[in-house]
Design brief:
His-Me_finger_sf, Endonuclease_7, Endonuclease_7_sf, single chain, two-stranded antiparallel ribbon, 7 strands, 31% helix, five-stranded mixed sheet
């Protein structure tokens, strides 16, 4: 199957609100995870024209939304935002059908091709060859047997991958410290002891704290506050998630299929 020309990579950050709640015969809940921000990045195939993305208002840089005490329904906002984005992507795909444009060399190579690029069967009088091209750019992609070409129809959904590493997250961030909204407005990096994780029952190392200090200086935490530090990590997640998913590693991700009509 042909790869979808668009993929959405997303990430959430959460407030770790302290609580005490019996959730089983021998289990106590000590935290409630409340989404505080989300971000997503739309990765387009290399041959998708920039003008087409601009026409349909498809973001070309990371989109980040941070909640607050007065707008705390972050998850609902994310769902509405992604559904609206998927609708625009669907409109783009349904309305765009650029005719194929082939160079003299591409015509020569197509005419010389004797087997289908997909099924590898030889072309005959009854198994005729056709050109497969990108309907968004007009670029030639393959020389195919006609039924194989029909199998490459773009699916009516947009794949969305949410970052979700096995140890909750893979960066140095004081999750237990950020237990209510006002903490996100702090202008200085928390002390090293505030980076203790009740999930792993571990303190961070001095080298890890130094890294957090370096990042806070690099991204001017005083200007963007502590909440902005999580935002910076989200931006990094988009790009690493794209690389990981593209190369099919074994890290666990949640895949959401966002349909459009």
């Amino acid at each position: 199957m042909q790869r979808h020309p668009f993929v959405i990579y997303a990430d959430f950050e959460a407030l770790i609100e302290k609580q005490t709640e019996r959730v089983g015969a021998s289990t106590d809940g000590i935290h409630a995870h409340h989404p505080m921000s989300y971000g997503y990045f739309v990765k387009a195939a290399a041959d998708v024209p920039v003008a087409l993305m601009e026409k349909y208002d498809i973001p070309q840089t990371p989109v980040v939304y941070r909640g607050s005490e007065s707008r705390d329904e972050v998850a609902k906002h994310f769902v509405a935002s992604v559904i609206a984005l998927a609708t625009r992507l669907g409109d783009l795909l349904k309305a765009t059908n650029v005719l194929i444009s082939m160079s003299v060399e591409e015509v020569r190579m197509h005419n010389a091709r004797s087997v289908c690029d997909m099924c590898k069967l030889a072309f005959t009088e009854t198994r005729w060859k056709v050109t497969d091209h990108c309907h968004l750019s007009g670029r030639l992609r393959h020389t195919l047997y006609a039924p194989c070409n029909l199998k490459l129809a773009t699916p009516k959904f947009v794949p969305s991958f949410l970052h979700n590493l096995s140890k909750y997250d893979a960066h140095v961030y004081p999750y237990d410290f950020t237990d209510y909204w006002a903490k996100l407005e702090q202008l200085t990096l928390p002390a090293i002891e505030d980076f203790y994780s009740t999930l792993t029952e571990e303190h961070i190392k001095d080298t890890e704290y130094q890294f957090a200090k370096d990042v806070s200086v690099m991204y001017a935490i005083r200007a963007d506050r502590l909440g902005g530090l999580g935002t910076r990590f989200q931006n990094r997640h988009f790009y690493t998630t794209h690389i990981i998913i593209t190369n099919w590693t074994n890290i666990t991700y949640l895949l959401i299929i966002t349909n459009y009509n």
